[in-house]
Design goal:
Blueprint: H1 2-17, H2 23-39, E1 43-48, E2 53-59, H3 62-72, H4 80-83, E3 99-100, H5 109-117, E4 130-134, H6 141-147, H7 152-162, E5 176-184, E6 187-199, E7 204-211, E8 214-221, E9 225-234, H8 239-245, H9 250-260, E10 275-284, E11 290-303, E12 306-314, E13 320-323, E14 343-346, E15 349-352, E16 359-362, E17 365-368, E18 374-376, E19 381-388, E20 394-399, E21 404-411, E22 413-414, E23 423-424, E24 429-432, E25 443-450, E26 453-455, H10 470-490, E27 496-497
Parallel strand pairs: 2-3
Antiparallel strand pairs: 1-2, 4-5, 5-6, 6-7, 7-8, 9-10, 9-27, 10-11, 11-12, 12-13, 14-17, 15-16, 17-25, 18-24, 19-20, 19-23, 20-21, 21-25, 22-24, 25-26
Helix pairs in contact: 1-2, 2-3, 6-7
């Protein structure tokens, strides 16, 4: 009988205070409530439950219960002797009623808690086993789990395992979380967490599932299909803004700028009424959501009276590049501008040095940009030097061939993979804009060294890339013509699946 009483008091403490208080507090509140019933005129009555059980309840105002709850904190451990006088008692069935609940302390503790707190779990419906949670303002992961009855020990394990795929600290207001629970011993009010699903985006859903005494976390992805799209835009002001209005994804325009960067300076060469045509791969769900974009298959940039059409082509040896209609690669040995969105703040030649205060040769070009802006390798090559170098601060020098080298100075950080002797590719991020060394503000100091002499990066005659010839060029012409026809078909804005077309092998 004593064990039954202890179990009852533990359940009361757990359900009223979500497990944050102990059985001892339940004892003290009970004792205080008995005091309140004697001194404050608490009335009792019998009520009939939904299950046709008879229950004794004490009816009192909320203020009376609050007085009892506050008074309970003045009880000491010795006061529990007073409580030992109270025992669980069985009640005989009332006339006309098939059963009477026996878990009543002196015929009234259970009822007293119900009526005073107004939140009895015995009267209110238990939470559904399957429910959808909407993240509220100020919610954190631990708070959401606690509010739904998931023990702290389980929530801690789930938090750590989720971070492999998604940081729970990045949960946002309005996000939906589907939670599923199991009944314990057939009691709907006693639930155990089983599974949780949270949509990260229209493609990915994070799933947390109980696996015996542990949890398994995984990300389920919807299938996507590769389609080919074609767009065109006339440039008005910013090329990024113009492309966005035409429905060209930012990732595609960024890729196009990177492809053309060895021949076109987008900060200075592109003007209003220039235009861009582009055909690219898009990976989409069946509902049309774009999960990601792929390769650009064709592009045509019109700068003034000059047109630069490019076609993606995979060569016989497996290498892929962009070629002009004459079979010549667009890739020069060096990019004209190894940084995106930067303003040229100082050119090549003599100038008054901003720090030293006297006229000095400026053997490079400066590009002003915010700290942290990525810096690209201007061409394929091998890193000769990487690290701090005198007044240059954090510095990288790359050897591209027997004649050409490039240098990058004043960086805030060098890419950890860019070390002396390491090979880099054109367009690879080698570091980030900073103001280290002798510098007055964040910028990139860029140098080109030809045959051991520093030359103007904007006027040096750079050798062009590869020329296709023979069977390779013939095969390229076939691919180019097929691409032109596909672009003409798609330019109305429709999309088609990337079905393989039979191709003549001219090798």
């Amino acid at each position: 009988m004593e064990n039954n009483k202890n179990l009852m008091l533990t359940k009361i403490a757990t359900r009223l205070f979500h497990g944050r208080f102990t059985q001892g507090l339940a004892y003290r509140i009970y004792a205080a409530s008995q005091f309140a019933s004697c001194k404050l005129g608490v009335r009792s009555r019998y009520v009939l439950t939904k299950k046709n059980n008879l229950r004794l309840r004490y009816v009192t105002g909320l203020s009376t219960f609050m007085i009892a709850a506050i008074a309970s904190f003045t009880f000491t451990a010795q006061d529990t002797g007073f409580l030992s006088a109270y025992k669980f008692a069985s009640m005989t069935p009332a006339a006309g009623h098939p059963s009477i609940e026996t878990n009543i302390i002196n015929g009234g503790l259970h009822g007293n808690f119900q009526s005073a707190s107004m939140v009895s779990n015995q009267i209110s419906e238990p939470l559904p086993l399957d429910r959808e949670i909407t993240v509220k303002s100020g919610d954190v992961f631990s708070k959401i789990m606690e509010r739904n009855g998931v023990p702290n020990s389980d929530a801690s394990v789930i938090f750590k395992k989720m971070k492999t795929h998604f940081d729970p600290r990045h949960i946002k207001e309005g996000q939906k979380i589907a939670m599923h629970f199991d009944e314990v011993h057939g009691d709907a009010a006693d639930q155990r967490f089983r599974e949780m699903k949270m949509k990260l985006d229209p493609v990915r859903t994070l799933v947390v599932a109980r696996a015996n005494d542990d949890f398994k976390v995984d990300v389920k992805e919807k299938p996507v299909t590769k389609v080919v799209k074609a767009k065109q835009t006339t440039i008005k002001g910013s090329i990024h803004r113009s492309a966005s209005k035409a429905g060209i994804p930012s990732s595609v325009i960024a890729n196009a700028i990177k492809i053309y960067s060895s021949s076109v300076d987008f900060q200075r060469d592109v003007r209003a009424n220039d235009s861009l045509e582009v055909m690219y791969e898009s990976y989409e769900t069946e509902t049309g959501y774009v999960a990601k974009t792929g390769n650009i298959l064709y592009a045509n940039l019109k700068v003034g009276k000059r047109e630069i059409p490019l076609y993606r082509y995979k060569m016989k040896d497996g290498r892929t590049d962009y070629f002009q209609p004459n079979g010549r690669s667009i890739k020069h040995t060096l990019m004209k501008t190894p940084i995106k969105g930067a303003r040229m703040s100082s050119g090549f030649g003599k100038r008054r040095h901003p720090v030293l205060g006297y006229t000095k040769m400026h053997a490079g070009v400066d590009f002003a940009a915010p700290t942290g802006t990525p810096i690209f390798a201007a061409g394929d090559g091998v890193v000769e030097r990487s690290g701090w170098f005198s007044s240059y601060g954090k510095y990288v020098r790359i050897r591209h061939n027997s004649e050409l080298k490039t240098a990058y100075a004043h960086m805030s950080k060098i890419n950890s993979k860019v070390k002396s002797g390491q090979r880099v590719k054109q367009g690879q991020v080698i570091g980030y804009v900073g103001t280290t060394g002798r510098s007055t503000g964040p910028h990139l100091h860029y140098e080109v060294v030809k045959n051991g002499r520093k030359v103007n990066p904007r006027s040096v005659n750079l050798p062009i890339g590869e020329d296709l010839a023979g069977k390779e060029k013939e095969n390229f012409k076939y691919v180019m013509n097929k691409t032109r026809r596909q672009y003409a078909t798609l330019i109305d804005g429709t999309k088609v699946a990337d079905n393989k077309v039979a191709r003549k092998n001219v090798f």
